[in-house]
Amino acid sequence: MMDRSGAAAYVNAKAGGMLKKSFVGPRAIRLFAVHSLPELWSLLFESEVPAIPEVLLAQRIEQEAQFRFITQYIKLVENYSHPDDIMLSLLRFFDFDNLKQIGAALANRETQMPAIADIRPYNLLDYSAWPNVAAITKHSQLSWYNTVPEISGQQKLDNRLDLQYLQLVWDSVQTLPGPEREPVEHLIRNDFIMKNILWALRLKVYYGMKPDEILPRLAFADAAPDVRNAFAGPAVKILEKDINSWNDWSDWKYVRLLNHHEEGAVWTVDPRWVEQASKKEQNNEAMKKFHQYPLTAMVLVTWFKIKQNELDCIRTATEGLRLNADEAQVMEFAGVTPGRQE
């Protein structure tokens, strides 16, 4: 462990070297150029391809990719004698996600603990206490999650976990040194805004929900007005828009993210298209910020975001190969088609 300035210099160089070898930006296309799961394994890992059925190999690829991501990030964080709160809050995404998986397994009366992401020594939860969910969460900020959920109530609990995680991340940003805080705030705020927009779009398009049904489901919707306006305001502005009317959306601030419209043709806003376009835009922004703010907390914040996107691409490529899906469609779904890369 080093002091903050020494750790920042080392991490900046190390993290940059890792990104050069990662499947991000134009290199992400290589994930979709392979034609089998064994070939994808060989592209990603140096070890021999496991001699197991393809269904199990697909699981192993995703597990190994996630393990490598977490391991690399922890090794970077461990260079700091006192890591910034935001560095640890991002990592604890996996604790919150693990608890969702544990809750689902217990709700379905499963006797074996689901595969979890191991983030020791920074974990909030005591996974050794399985299957006692109260003991798992007892000494953490998630101690309120202390009973086995009913299947019907699981979504509500998952939503509460999501909201708490977002609040944890935002609060941790506020503890950064003044000069470093503003650019990280901007990056995280834009991420939260887009999460709200995408959630609102899915509820409108896929579930036909009305504005008064969607509003309470938005992150920070029940917060103070300034917070609500900052994070949920842009999503609130689209609640009254007609999903089948281009004219309603043509002057939208984020119109650049919408699926194409042709004059006279039937059009409906496509949440999946918006998600793909926003993911690409956010990843490009993270890459720029990584280089723009060296020797600051932004390095690890953007590194985490970039590598998280790489993990999503690996999962998409794996699933596409397992299902023998059309390569072009899989690449389009991941947002990394050659024509859309920068």
What features would you describe in this structure?
The chain has 342 residues and is mainly α. The chain has helices spanning 4-20, 37-44, 54-77, 85-91, 93-107, 133-137, 154-173, 178-205, 211-214, 225-231, 233-236, 246-249, 271-292, 298-322, 327-334. Helix 1 (4-20) runs parallel beside helix 14 (298-322).
Fold topology:
Elements: H1 4-20, H2 37-44, H3 54-77, H4 85-91, H5 93-107, H6 133-137, H7 154-173, H8 178-205, H9 211-214, H10 225-231, H11 233-236, H12 246-249, H13 271-292, H14 298-322, H15 327-334
Helix pairs in contact: 1-14, 2-3, 3-14, 4-7, 5-7, 7-8, 8-13, 13-14, 14-15
Output the CATH topology of the largest domain: Topoisomerase I, Chain A, domain 4
Class of secondary structure makeup: mainly alpha
Strand content: under 5%
The SSE string, one letter per element, is HHHHHHHHHHHHHHH
Number of domains: 3
Overall pLDDT score: 93
Q: What's the story with the biggest beta sheet?
A: none
Q: Residue share in helices? A: 55-70%
What is the CATH architecture assignment of the largest domain?
A: Orthogonal Bundle
Q: Given the structure, what is the number of helices?
A: 15
Record field, number of beta strands: 0
Question: How far is the N terminus from the C terminus?
Answer: 37 Å
Query: Low-confidence parts lasting 5 or more residues at pLDDT below 50?
Result: none
